[in-house]
Design brief:
By secondary structure, this protein is α+β, with helices and mostly antiparallel strands. The protein has 4 helices and 6 strands. The chain has 2 domains: about 70 residues; about 110 residues, Head domain of nucleotide exchange factor GrpE (Nucleotide Exchange Factor Grpe, Chain A, domain 2, Roll). It is about 55% helix and about 15% strand. Helix 3 runs antiparallel to helix 4. The chain is elongated and about 105 Å long.
Length: about 190
């Protein structure tokens, strides 16, 4: 602390001595030359001030944007953890076709699982989490992860023909890409030699 005070005092005395030397040099000039030198210093100091103010404003805006992003995307980790719950509810519903359900207890159980899935997806939507289920859409590497290619002549190449796992967005950020199968043109038959 004492060293800091000493350093500050030395810096202040150095600045004071430089200002005195500068003042002595300016005092020796003609009035017009003094005005010109002082105008130049004023312009330089004004430029420094404006740059410092602009930098402070940019820092304030950046901090505000970071604060807003932190608030908006704070649930990212929690949301990613809940995606497996949504996947498992869907798997449970897909594991048994309606035609195979014979008794009322199983039908009731499936209805409860479906209601739970609907409620979870509703909560997701309320908090800005949207499901990506891109069947029939063009493949977009920003939102989809191609797992396989399937030869199809009924779909244009690059079209998603199967969704293995839906993706999810949190507001406008990708939480998880959709895992998809993409159409490719059928292989041409080999020409005989």
């Amino acid at each position: 602390m004492i060293d800091d005070t000493r350093n500050h005092e030395e810096t202040a005395s150095d600045a004071s001595a430089a200002a005195n030397n500068n003042f002595d040099e300016i005092a020796e000039l003609s009035p017009e030359a003094r005005v010109a030198v002082l105008d130049a210093e004023l312009a330089e100091n004004k430029d420094r001030l404006l740059r410092a103010l602009a930098e402070a404003e940019n820092t304030r805006r950046r901090a505000q944007r970071e604060r807003e992003d932190a608030t908006r995307y704070a649930v990212t980790g929690f949301a990613k953890d809940l995606l497996s719950v949504a996947d498992n509810l869907r798997r449970a519903l897909d594991s048994l076709a309606d035609a195979e359900v014979r008794d009322e207890r199983t039908r009731s159980l499936l209805a409860g699982v479906a209601a739970t899935e609907r409620e979870l997806l509703s909560v997701f939507e309320r908090h800005g989490i949207r499901r990506i289920d891109p069947i029939g859409e063009r493949f977009d590497h920003n939102f989809h992860q191609a797992i396989f290619e399937a030869e199809r002549d009924d779909q244009p190449p690059g079209t998603i023909v199967e969704v293995l796992q839906p993706g999810y967005l949190l507001h406008d950020r990708l939480l998880r890409p959709a895992m998809v199968g993409v159409a490719k043109p059928p292989a041409k038959p080999a020409e005989p030699l």
